[in-house]
Amino acid sequence: MQLIDGKAISMQIKQEIAAEVAEIKAKGGKVPHLAVIIVGHDGGSETYVKNKVLSCEQCGFKSTKIAFESDITEDELLAAIDKLNKDNDVDGFIVQLPLPKHISEQKVIEAIDYKKDVDGFHPINVGRTSIGLPAFVSATPAGILELLKRYNIETKGKNCVVIGRSNIVGKPVASLMMQKAYPGNATVTVCHSGTKNIKEICKEADIIIAAMGSPKFVTADMVKDGAVVIDVGTTRVPCAESKTGFKLTGDVDFENVAPKCSFITPVPGGVGPMTICSLMKNTLLAGKKEIYK
Amino acid sequence: MQLIDGKAISMQIKQEIAAEVAEIKAKGGKVPHLAVIIVGHDGGSETYVKNKVLSCEQCGFKSTKIAFESDITEDELLAAIDKLNKDNDVDGFIVQLPLPKHISEQKVIEAIDYKKDVDGFHPINVGRTSIGLPAFVSATPAGILELLKRYNIETKGKNCVVIGRSNIVGKPVASLMMQKAYPGNATVTVCHSGTKNIKEICKEADIIIAAMGSPKFVTADMVKDGAVVIDVGTTRVPCAESKTGFKLTGDVDFENVAPKCSFITPVPGGVGPMTICSLMKNTLLAGKKEIYK
Predict the structure, then answer these.
(1) Measured between CB atoms, which of A123, A167, A190 is closest to B188?
(2) Among B268, B219, B214, residue whose Cα is nearest residue B242
(3) 8-state DSSP, A39
(4) What is the pTM of this model?
(5) Taking burial as the number of CB atoms within 10 A of a residue's CB, which of A183, B32, B145, B225 is the most buried?
């Protein structure tokens, strides 16, 4: 069994990005600039945004954090987005989710200029990813593919089972894994809450991508010997021994599943660090105008 | 075994549309207007366009056919598209594919205003379909779902195997069949040229959607008893006995597969007539501004 070290890979990728940015700078070019909008004081969101700003520093990017109180109106937020859309210095930006209930997340996602949508959530980027056109690919799915690539994991003709059909992980990762490309070219099955025979389906999988947010859902009896298991779950489970009072728990019963796997991602330290890393990569692409002019 | 009669269903739907259009007209409203651009003289394309114009008449729509010779430049075609984008009288329009090789189909698809893209090929409509937002759904996939609905075929929790991953059928129909909706909520597997164990996978399917364009690919030994089989294939196979010199042949070995099925679509007369019918439905939606304002 080989552990997939997302933390190490993400550090390596950030160093690669930093080297490229240094070169751009040396040639007198413009350093990529990421802006992050955060609304309110959700603990998880604040940590994520802090890490994103920190990652920008590590990559040599310029970053701007724009914080609003949770009583901001939808119109005010949309106006802030419009300002960033028009700001030529900003190459890409994101609005940290979730948002307060009085603001429509979908409206916010669609208000972002797709050419600056480095989270890859805008319908144009979702559609272009599905069609196989250059696009800002949603960060977590892109991170998963990058891990498969860096570990030279064969995907062609493999049975890949995706558990979960969310718009930000399940659906786009399924879409990528079925493309005629590497990583990809796999036979993809998408399972979800409506699936009846999930145990039997997983048992046939060469690659399992678990992304439904249900702690320890994937148990050893669902995994065949030699399978590759990618765990996207990060549920905060209360934990008395932890300083923070909780523990990030994946969708896979790691302890019992790991011994059966050829490759497996831990939680934390697997897919998690790759998500921010993909955001950095998308920002670099935005800065270089590689996806859109 | 029950035969799914796409021809009858499509006639019924066109009558429903015609009734709605008559009502719109009676109330002094604007009749939906579809424009169709055709380039060159491909026999298949000319037949399709003729049938689309005829269907517009049956539905009570206004239609405009714009024909160009195959030596039209890409820029000239893009200019014609731009004109239709700006023409307030035109609610929706399509450019009949395939196009001559010197014209980029992708560029043409993306040049169409997504709010008039009644073929549902624009990345925004593809992305919105995947996300589950209101969209012009690609015509063939929409037609397949309509057939499942009209025959009250249960899809929830069923194993649905899609063979083929084209951008206009395989991928979008897979996307629709996994949505939490009816028809949909199925466990979806997408098979393609890279799939190794396609026979075994099909054998487990409750619903098979065959859309790879390989005549009689799906044989009786790949289908379990009681399965629902939807045949999207329409390959022109030479045939001496036919007036036209060819015969439309599906992806399913109908003669031997049909006796095992609970429901099956014939070729021709199954999915085919539904595709134009979905285009008419999208045009009605465009005319009523139900998807986009």
Answers:
(1) A190
(2) B268
(3) E
(4) 0.95
(5) B32
Strand pairing report for A228-231 and A207-210: parallel
**pLDDT tens, position by position, B43-95:** 889 999 999 999 999 999 999 999 999 999 999 999 999 999 999 999 999 99
The two tokens of residue A249 are: 């728990």
Q: Could you tell me if B14 and B277 are in contact, meaning their C-beta atoms sit under 8 angstroms apart?
A: yes
pLDDT band at B117 (very low <50, low <70, confident <90, very high): very high
CA dist B149 and B13 (Å) reads 12
Provide the 3-class DSSP secondary structure of residue A165: coil
Q: What is the pLDDT of residue A120?
A: 97
CB of A213 closer than 8 Å to CB of A247: no
Number of H helices, E strands in chain A: 10, 11
* pLDDT confidence tier of residue B243, bands split at 50, 70 and 90: confident
Chain A touched by B137 (CB under 8 Å): no
Among all residues of chain A, which has the CA nearest to that of B126?
A: A127
A96 is catalytic: yes
CA atoms within 13 A on the CB side of A32: 32
Instruction: Give A74-95 pLDDT, tens digit per residue.
Output: 999 999 999 999 999 999 999 9
Whether the CB-CB separation of A208 and A228 falls below 8 Å is answered with yes
| DSSP type of residue B260 | G
Rounded to an integer, what distance in angstroms lies between the CA atom of residue B122 and that of residue B92?
13
The answer to whether B230 and B270 are in contact (CB under 8 A) is yes
**Domains of chain B by start residue, with CATH:** 26-113 (3.40.50.10860), 139-271 (3.40.50.720)
Contact at CB, B131 and A123, closer than 8 angstroms: yes
**Interface membership of A14 toward B (CB under 8 Å):** no
- Please give, rounded to a whole number of angstroms, the shortest distance from the CA of A261 to a CA of chain B: 21
Q: Which of A167, A278, A269, A160 is nearest to A209 (CA)?
A: A160
User: Is B284's pLDDT higher than 90?
Assistant: yes
Residues of B in contact with A176 (CB under 8 A): none
CA distance A144 to A272: 10
- DSSP letter at A166? -
* DSSP H/E element including B187: strand B187-191
What is the rounded CA–CA span in Å between residue A293 and residue A285? 11
